[in-house]
Here is the input.
Amino acid sequence: MSPPDEDGCATEPPSVLAIRYLMYYTASESGGTGVIMLNVPTRSIAVTGMTCEHCASAVRAEISKLTGVTGIDVDVAGGTVRVTGEPLPGDARLREAVAEAGYEFGS
Here is the structure.
């Protein structure tokens, strides 16, 4: 791997192939000085009933218990939750987690 450019970005394309993936995480390559970008599967879902940060925390807590989930970004005002992970949980598991938090899973 070649060293990063002046901005600290990898000068080679990522080695991880992805479909419907967005880049969210950076990690140092072990034994090297370069930085590589990892592609992480991401999914956005609608959640109704959230009105405050406490609501977001409750949803975050329940979804974070699901196997494979590595990140959760809650937008209370927009009523959306972006979930990242490998593998991403399916609708049934997300619906159960959101219901356990006290809210409704939308489409």
Remarks:
- Strands lie at 21-28, 35-48, 69-75, 80-85, 104-105.
- The first strand starts at residue 21 and ends at 28.
- The two ends are 42 Å apart (CA to CA).
